[in-house]
């Protein structure tokens, strides 16, 4: 069974870029406790980012990275590192890198830098190429969910669902249908419906279906 072992965060939200904070996950459960604003959500955001490559909602302009103004720097380099065990029992390492630069006028410029997906025992962190599977972010985005044995949609909408997105089950029918289709993989990559899946059954049982009236 897949498992998360350790998460290292540097330069994300309130986690500054001067030190690395390490969170270890224990079996069967790890409880994250802290005051408001202490960084509990940030830990989940980092897990989602490490596994899917998706940054939290409303952070497009670089708000996910520690604010350079607070760091008193022009540029902040951020890193999220996750050690995990794949569904087949292999110890893996995923590293994602970001940087944010304060613009001369105002605002931020964010860059996504090369990542690493590697075997945890291959010394990729020390620069060794042994055991490195990919350094391309797009490949990490598809490979990591596969290694965990969970679809990207389930990681995004269920396991690491952001608190700002957690009301999606109450969304309007078309949004809800799309979410269920993604989660149950009801559409092929070409967008055509696959076999009858739970989402299709859900759609049939919940959405009003207009039937032509019969002439008697
Ligand atoms: N870009 C940023 N740079 C620096 N600090 C930031 C940045 N973005 C958010 N923060 C700070 O990081 C913290 C975010 O904390 P987070 O939401 O993870 O806390 P939490 O423990 O989940 O809080 P709550 O219990 O209220 O949900 C806040 O204190 C916020 O001010």
From TrEMBL:
Catalytic reactions on record: ATP + H2O = ADP + phosphate + H(+)
Q: Which cofactor does it need?
A: Zn(2+)
Question: A GO CC term?
Answer: condensed nuclear chromosome
Does Hydrolase appear among the keywords? no
Segments traversing the membrane: none
Q: Which GO terms describe its molecular function?
A: ATP hydrolysis activity; double-stranded telomeric DNA binding; G-quadruplex DNA binding; metal ion binding; single-stranded telomeric DNA binding
Q: Keywords for this entry?
A: Chromosome, Metal-binding, Nucleus, Zinc
- Which Pfam family, giving just one, matches this sequence? AAA_23
Q: What is this protein called?
A: Rad50/SbcC-type AAA domain-containing protein
């Amino acid at each position: 069974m897949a498992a998360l072992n350790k998460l290292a965060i540097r330069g994300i939200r309130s986690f500054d870029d001067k030190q690395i904070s390490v969170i270890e996950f224990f079996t069967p459960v790890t409880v994250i406790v802290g005051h408001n604003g202490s960084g509990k959500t940030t830990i989940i955001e980092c897990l989602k980012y490490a596994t899917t490559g998706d940054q939290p909602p409303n952070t497009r302009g670089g708000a996910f990275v520690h604010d350079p103004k607070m760091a008193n720097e022009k540029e902040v380099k951020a890193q999220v590192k996750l050690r995990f065990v794949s569904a087949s029992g292999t110890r893996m390492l995923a590293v994602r890198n970001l940087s944010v630069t304060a613009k001369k006028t105002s605002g931020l410029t964010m860059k996504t830098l090369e990542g690493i997906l590697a075997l945890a025992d291959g010394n990729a962190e020390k620069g060794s190429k042994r055991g490195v599977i990919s350094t391309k972010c797009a490949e990490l985005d598809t490979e990591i969910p596969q290694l965990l044995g969970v679809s990207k949609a389930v990681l995004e909408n269920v396991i690491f669902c952001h608190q700002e997105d957690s009301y999606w089950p109450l969304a309007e029918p078309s949004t809800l249908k799309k979410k269920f289709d993604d989660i149950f993989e009801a559409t092929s990559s070409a967008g055509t419906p696959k076999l009858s899946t739970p989402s299709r059954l859900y759609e049939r049982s919940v959405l009003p279906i207009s039937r032509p009236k019969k002439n008697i």
